[in-house]
Amino acid sequence: MLLSFISLSVLGQEEGPLKLEREGLQMNYYYEGVQLEKEEVRVYLSTNPASAITFRTSRNFGIAAVTMAGGAFICALAGIYYMTSSFISFIDCNGRAGDELLRSIYCELAGSAFTLASIACGISYRNNLTRSIKLYNDTMIPQGYLNNVILYFGITENGIGLGIRF
């Protein structure tokens, strides 16, 4: 006995004219298949007020992330300096080793705080950038307009049946 399930599968399109593709740490922007520079993306996103505000917020988070990473690097260097100085003071037996070791620990703790803040700002940067592009694409696609409808017969979520992809 052959059992078959008939169902209707409906899937919506998620893409718009402006796309963001990530390759490792590098982000590439495409508008209808053509690669754009960052300045051109800013011009496109500024046509929609909501996406422009979100893009500016994203840019501010990006600047904060880079600044915090720089602060973490400086604190790490200062911590290494004080750690080395503490080691030299310990060898020379001049009694300053404890103070310099404590400074080293403070620098490393501050560097850790800067690193965590940088990671949080970097995540907010990417989330706001993605949201800005989504807001732009949502305004570019007319509401209630099906620009591409595909009717197919095949495997669906509930078995075999007709599917509509738009």
| Overall average pLDDT | 78
What structural class do the secondary elements suggest?
alpha+beta
Helical region count?
3
CA gyration radius, whole angstroms: 27 Å
Helix-strand topology string: EEEEHHHEE
Instruction: Give the assembly state of these chains.
Output: single chain
| Helix amount | 55-70%
Major β-sheet strand ordering = 1-6-5
Helix and strand topology:
Layout lengths: L7 E4 L6 E6 L2 E6 L2 E3 L1 H8 L3 H44 L4 H44 L9 E7 L2 E7 L1
Helix pairs in contact: 2-3
Plain-language structure description:
It is a single chain. With 166 residues, the chain is of the alpha+beta class. 58% of the residues lie in helices and 20% in strands. It has three helices and six strands; from the N terminus they run ββββαααββ. Strand 3 and strand 4 form a beta hairpin. The chain is elongated, with a radius of gyration of 27 Å. The N terminus is likely disordered.
Considering the chains and any ligands shown, give keywords for the structure:
58% helix; 166 residues; 3 helices; 3-stranded mixed beta sheet; alpha+beta; 3-stranded antiparallel beta sheet; disordered N terminus
